[in-house]
Design goal:
67% of the residues lie in helices and 0% in strands. Helix 1 crosses helix 2.
Protein backbone atom coordinates (compact mmCIF):
# COMPACT_ATOMS: atom_id res chain seq x y z
CA UNK A 1 0.00 0.00 0.00
CA UNK A 2 1.51 3.35 -0.97
CA UNK A 3 2.21 5.59 2.02
CA UNK A 4 3.86 9.00 2.08
CA UNK A 5 6.21 9.95 4.90
CA UNK A 6 8.06 13.24 5.23
CA UNK A 7 11.70 12.85 6.23
CA UNK A 8 14.32 15.47 6.95
CA UNK A 9 16.67 15.75 3.98
CA UNK A 10 19.60 14.36 5.98
CA UNK A 11 17.64 11.26 6.96
CA UNK A 12 16.40 10.78 3.41
CA UNK A 13 19.96 10.92 2.11
CA UNK A 14 21.16 8.52 4.81
CA UNK A 15 18.35 6.09 4.03
CA UNK A 16 19.24 6.02 0.35
CA UNK A 17 22.99 5.68 1.03
CA UNK A 18 22.33 2.70 3.29
CA UNK A 19 19.94 1.12 0.81
CA UNK A 20 22.45 1.54 -2.01
CA UNK A 21 25.26 0.10 0.11
CA UNK A 22 23.14 -2.97 0.83
CA UNK A 23 21.82 -3.26 -2.74
CA UNK A 24 18.20 -3.10 -1.52
CA UNK A 25 15.44 -0.55 -1.95
CA UNK A 26 14.78 2.28 0.47
CA UNK A 27 11.25 0.87 0.68
CA UNK A 28 12.60 -2.44 1.99
CA UNK A 29 14.71 -0.72 4.64
CA UNK A 30 11.80 1.43 5.79
CA UNK A 31 9.44 -1.55 5.88
CA UNK A 32 11.89 -3.57 7.97
CA UNK A 33 12.61 -0.64 10.29
CA UNK A 34 8.93 0.07 10.94
CA UNK A 35 8.22 -3.61 11.53
CA UNK A 36 11.14 -3.94 13.97
CA UNK A 37 10.01 -0.82 15.83
CA UNK A 38 6.41 -1.96 16.11
CA UNK A 39 7.49 -5.44 17.23
CA UNK A 40 9.41 -3.98 20.19
CA UNK A 41 6.62 -1.71 21.44
CA UNK A 42 5.06 -2.78 24.74
CA UNK A 43 1.38 -3.74 24.62
CA UNK A 44 -0.85 -0.67 24.78
CA UNK A 45 -2.44 -2.00 28.00
CA UNK A 46 0.93 -1.59 29.72
CA UNK A 47 1.37 2.07 28.80
CA UNK A 48 -2.16 3.49 28.52
CA UNK A 49 -3.38 5.61 31.45
Amino acid sequence: MPTAVRLPESLHERLHREADARDVSANLLVTRAVEAYLDQLPPVEEVAP
